[in-house]
């Protein structure tokens, strides 16, 4: 557990709650705490359980990632919402600060993933086989490694370039483990502070779960349309930006 990260459920909920109804609650999770499945430290689900509240994660974001996480309060809502992730009808958007400024205004990373040594996610082809053309990164089928691979696609829009770094809005069309982190690192633009790929030594990975939209039939209107504003710790990687929040349009279509 990162030092200074709140783990008490009542304080976590009070500080980071975005919205809640009878079926779900959404948090703007700080970097440094897991959603669930933490072996050695407290995670959000375990913290809530210890306080007498049972929660079911609708999706997961990495421990090092901040931002929007949705949890169900009953199994009926959980099943209804997780099916949307499985069918890829859930609309998701992330923000990232990456190293380098050579990315186009819009791009698509269309690189299949596989699992390598020590269960590490990697691109399912040699690094030198990655090609780019017209804002798209890809590999030829003939360059794929013999191991099982998983088609993976990330779309991005460039929001700002400053101080040798780039701010991106990203839409993971597929939702593979570590997808955004691996995709960006393997095309030469690692997320600033990512402990897997960046050696800057910064205290957090500058990846943020920003927006989420799902169908929610029990609500009126029947939609969960959620936005988690990034905190000052996210923007600290680009101190040259005077008003970074002005880059973000919470009403823009997700994936545009």
Write the layout of secondary structure elements.
Elements: H1 9-16, E1 17-20, E2 24-29, H2 44-50, E3 56-57, E4 66-72, H3 75-86, E5 91-99, E6 106-109, E7 113-115, E8 121-123, E9 131-133, E10 136-138, E11 154-162, E12 165-172, H4 179-186, E13 207-215, E14 223-227, H5 232-235
Parallel strand pairs: 4-13, 6-10
Antiparallel strand pairs: 1-2, 2-4, 3-4, 5-12, 5-13, 6-11, 7-8, 9-10, 11-12, 13-14
Tag the structure with descriptive keywords:
two-stranded antiparallel sheet; globular; 5 helices; twelve-stranded mixed beta sheet; single chain; 256 residues; alpha+beta; 14 strands
Structural summary, described in words:
This protein is α+β, with helices and mostly antiparallel strands and 256 residues long. Helices cover 15% and strands 29% of the residues. The chain has helices spanning 9-16, 44-50, 75-86, 179-186, 232-235, and strands at 17-20, 24-29, 56-57, 66-72, 91-99, 106-109, 113-115, 121-123, 131-133, 136-138, 154-162, 165-172, 207-215, 223-227. Strands 1, 2, 3, 4, 5, 6, 9, 10, 11, 12, 13 and 14 form a twelve-stranded mixed beta sheet that branches. Strands 7-8 form a two-stranded antiparallel sheet. A hairpin with a 7-residue loop joins strand 13 (207-215) and strand 14. 35% of the residues are buried. The model has no long low-confidence stretch (mean pLDDT 94).
